[in-house]
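User: Structure tokens for both sequences below?

Assistant:
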Amino acid sequence: MKLGKKLQQQIQDTLPGWHDKFLSYKDLKKIVRLISSASSMMEGPHEHGKTEEDFVYLLDNEINKFNAFFMEQEEDFVIPHKGWLRS
């Protein structure tokens, strides 16, 4: 079984409510393939650059998604335990 399918199955089996919080592996992989094929086909630099910009944009969104999720999780833990953590 390929990594993407294993990852998707693992998420579904363990944390189905968090599905949208995980890396969009499939989308990123598609763009990486486009970049790779553009390089091998020697397409114009404009097309290659656009694809790389799309990848960076998606990756940046994924990082922001992770950051927001972890900040939310931290708040959910820290606020109820605030008094307990001071001791």
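Moving on to the next sequence.
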Amino acid sequence: MKLLEKQPETRYPDTQALLQALWTAGKERTSAAWKVPLIASTAEAPVEATVEEKEAWLARRQ
């Protein structure tokens, strides 16, 4: 969100500051709390399916 700040002075001052923030955020993502899948396993998903079938399958999983 800091990249989208309206006032330029509240954004990252330079590329190095942005890279440092990304590096720090990346290190925090190594905890077990980040290792949760966003969707159920796709192993059961139909391989050859229409778009409607895939959407129905995903809807059932959510």
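User: Anything stand out in the second?

Assistant: The CA atoms of residues 29 and 36 lie 11 Å apart.
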